[in-house]
Amino acid sequence: MSRQLRIDPIACTGHGLCAELFPERISLDDWGYPLIESGELSAELSEHAQRAVASVSAVAAKRHR
Amino acid sequence: MMLAAQQFPRLLAGLVPGATMSFANHQLIHGPMDLSRHGRAASEHPLLLEIERAGLRGYGGAGFPSATKIAAVAAQQGRPVVVINAMEGESLSGKDMLLIRHLPHLVLDGAIAIAMALRSDRILLAFDSGAAGARRAVERAIAERPERGTPGFPEIVGAPLGAAYLTGQETALVAALNGKAAKPTLTPPYPFERGVSGRPTLISNTETFAQIALIVRHGATWFRGLGSERAPGTRLVTVGGAVARPRVVEVPGGTTVRRLLDASGGVTESLQGLLVGGYAGTWLPPEAIDLALDPLELSEYGASLGPGIVFALGESACPVAEVAAATAWLHRESAGQCGVCINGLGAISAALLELCDDGYHSGSYGEIERWCGLVSGRGACALPDGAAAFVSSAMATFRAEFEQHARHGHCDACLDRRVLPLAGQELLAPRPSRRLVAA
Q1: A31 shares contact with chain B (CB less than 8 Å)
Q2: How far apart are CA B73 and CA A1, in angstroms?
Q3: Rounded Cα distance, B269 and B244, in Å
Q4: Domain, as residue range, for B277
Q5: Interface contact B378-A33, CB threshold 8 A
Q6: Could you tell me the pTM of the whole model?
Q7: B270: which of A34, B199, B206, B436 lies 20 to 30 Å off by Cα?
């Protein structure tokens, strides 16, 4: 199954951690919000993507406390 | 199916300005709607095939094929809800309110026919609670329906909602109908999957249902008997700006901009541009007056008719001030949920206001154009995309005026008045200017 990275623009707070963890596919715009380079993710890149996704959840969890 | 003679206008037949057409008069003009032969449900439904053959596309702005949309709802498990979207948050459009206030039975006919085909038991008519006369027209029309309370017929409920630019956006409308704030939500799930009360929901524009009411009666061949191959049938267009009689006109698909303006009393001054499609639309140079309102021809200019809007900008207005004010309004109307709207559209709006009033010295002209490209396709809804298209087409069409403002700030025309209607703002009112206050 092909995997794609997608941002939830409503949930995104522009923290920017995702771009730090996954610079291969994520850069930040003029205001610090992620720009995704589209395309399928190889197995290796998927791991990096997973890490970026997890970091976002971590930030979100922190924000809730 | 008997082929009725082609008459014109179709939707606006028998319209009496200022009056709501009664059910009796509606029946006299259009004849009764025979739903008996449309008894079968789901995707093989004859009405659905007829709508597909008619080539009907939604009139709310996106122009999505209606048959595909209805079939998507029909394919879902669960009893669907049908929503008539008359929110019309686009203040350049007046057709939905015209239909609701003056010809509500045409709209209700179409919604009932579709609800019956989908085996839906509930029709919601969502409209602007603040619009004068709308509530009374809706309540009266619903009370007049003979099907009311008849087993097997859907219940029709008026849903007055606080109007805003985004309330008519489908996911925002679903949220509002579910008692939440009228803000767009992330898709999927789409409303056709999970909408009002979590049920599959068909949301279509007011005019789309009115057109369906005629397709039910006369069929697809009749429908295609007017208009062009690519723009079959007729459609309502709200014509505004520098014309003698700004109004909603019904025209055959594929007609020219010039004929639209003529039908609105003709232009009152020479034009410097045309806005096609509204605040999510495209500015075109005056030469576009000879364009046909044909999807293909318009798309070559990056334009579409949107919810049916043509606005003529006369030479006495300042395009830069108009665009700056409208962009600031769009930014305020944004739900403020996504980074691109809060920051991107905010930056575009602030830059345009600065450019308009004081000249643009804090950045470059090209940067504003780049920002327009940057915000497209990155929000939860299409508001930033529409705003970016509105701004970038204006900057291309009125290049000289924008560059003039970027260097020197405000001009005489832009201190004078605003011609683009923005909901909640006084039209043609003198605009407070920092310069004037300081003087």
Answers
A1: yes
A2: 27
A3: 10
A4: 234-314
A5: yes
A6: 0.93
A7: B436
Mean pLDDT check: name the lowest of A55-59, B160-164, B329-333, B391-395. A55-59
A9–B380 C-beta distance less than 8 A: yes
Q: Are residues B343 and B434 in the same domain?
A: yes
Q: A44 is in which domain, residue-wise? A: 17-64
Same domain, B183 and B93: yes
CB distance from B175 to chain A under 8 Å? no
CB B35 within 8 A of CB B216: yes
Q: Is the pLDDT of residue B415 over 80?
A: no
Number of domains in chain B: 3
Q: Which of B240, B282, B317 has the alpha carbon at shortest distance from B394?
A: B282
DSSP string, B297-363: HHHTTT---TTTEEEEEETTS-HHHHHHHHHHHHHHHS-S-SHIIIIIIHHHHHHHHHHHHH---SS
- Across the interface, which of A8, A12, A30 has its CB nearest the CB of B374? A30
**What confidence tier does B2 reach under pLDDT thresholds 50, 70, 90?**
very low
Do B39 and B89 belong to one domain? yes
